[in-house]
Amino acid sequence: MSYFTKATFLTSAPSISHLSDFDGMEVAFAGRSNAGKSSALNKLTRQNSLARTSKTPGRTQLINLFELDERRRLVDLPGYGYAKVPLEMKLKWQKNLGEYLENRKCLKGLVVLMDIRHPLKDLDQNLIYWAVDAKLPVLLLLTKADKLKSGKRKQQVMMVREASMAFCGDITVHAFSSLTGIGLNEAENLLLDWFEVPRKLDASL
Ligand code: GTP
Ligand code: MG
Q1: What is the pairing mode between strands 72-76 and 8-13?
Q2: Which among 11, 12, 133, 203 is least surrounded, fewest beta carbons within 10 Å?
Q3: How do residues 173-187 score in pLDDT, each as one tens digit?
């Protein structure tokens, strides 16, 4: 059993400015539309329908909060970069996201999900810069890793690790698959560190 299986849906917020203050810890999941954020949250929590997944990009428009315990939460942020969203809305969302990363005191880390076949697009890079600027640790999950053969997968991970050194931040890179569970243990372990969950407690759950 994993610590994350006890996640329950807490609430949705229409925008970052609607989030009320929280003196516990949050870890947020961000990434381009369709990158696999909701699928990764479902995999992590072992709940098939906790976060809604969709074949239609841009599906998650609200910020969804999931509670692990009274002091810890996971946050599913709306995807960015969806072509059909009007430019004005895109810019507004980017500004909001920047402010959230900068000002949300309870944020302990940012998970950025990127399709392993198309990593580090401009908006991903912006987000990573903001997070590093805000002194947040970042976990880059290269999603849909099941779509690549092992050799190519490793090559992509190495390439992103090397490229991410340029950000000069606390950045960890792993391949991930919601289908096969590639990278699940690695992601869990890092999140447990960010959430300061004692390992004994985790083992007993
Ligand atoms: P938005 O909420 O729209 O921003 O998307 P999202 O990032 O939450 O993506 P979502 O989890 O809804 O997944 C998008 C599509 O990718 C769905 O069709 C998923 O089934 C598929 N998908 C997600 N993760 C994986 C994976 O690890 N492997 C494979 N093969 N497909 C995946
Ligand atoms: Mg989603």
Answers
A1: unpaired
A2: 203
A3: 999 999 999 999 999
Which CATH number does the domain housing residue 137 bear?
Answer: 3.40.50.300
Question: 140 forms bridges with which residues in the sheet?
Answer: 112, 173
What is the domain extent for residue 32? 3-204
8 A C-beta contact, residue 86 and residue 93: no
106 pLDDT more than 90 = yes
* Cα distance between residue 198 and residue 200, in whole Å: 5
Ligand 1 binding site (Cβ under 6 Å of any ligand atom)? 31, 33-39, 53-55, 57-60, 79, 143-144, 146-147, 177-179
Q: What are phi and psi of 19, to 5 degrees?
A: -75, 130
Which ligand is the nearest neighbour of the Cα of 57?
1
